[in-house]
Design goal:
By secondary structure, the protein is of the alpha+beta class. The chain has a single domain, classed as Alpha-Beta Plaits (2-Layer Sandwich), CATH 3.30.70. The protein contains three helices and four strands. It has helices at residues 18-30, 48-63, 84-96; strands at 2-10, 35-37, 42-45, 68-76. It has a four-stranded antiparallel β-sheet with strand order 2-3-1-4, with helices on one face. Helix 1 packs antiparallel against helix 2 (48-63).
Length: 97
């Protein structure tokens, strides 16, 4: 499964969310699961339990810095398929050449 998620603090004292979001990204990267981060979402690939555990821990990392947290999550659940973070993009690129 691939999960794209965005977690951010709300209700804090600062206009910048970068430090809190960086802690969430650190959790994802330290998980050892395949992942990517862009300006809007972090993607993580693995089985249901390990991915949801990472999302939970990343959310908790942001929650440590803010009284309120927003979480947006989208999942591509496709049992038996791995390596899809790169493979899905490669299939699209084939059609663009």
């Amino acid at each position: 499964m691939i999960v794209a998620f965005s977690v951010s603090p709300a209700g804090g004292q600062s206009d910048s969310v970068a430090a809190a979001v960086a802690e969430a990204v650190r959790v994802v990267r330290d998980s050892g699961l395949p992942n990517e981060t862009n300006s809007m979402f972090t993607l993580v690939e693995g089985d249901w339990d390990e991915v949801m555990d990472v999302v939970k821990r990343a959310t908790e990392a942001v929650q440590a810095a803010a009284p309120r947290v927003g979480l947006v999550l989208k999942a591509d659940i496709r049992p038996g398929h791995t390596g899809q973070l790169a493979a899905k993009v490669a299939r699209i690129e084939e059609h663009l050449t």
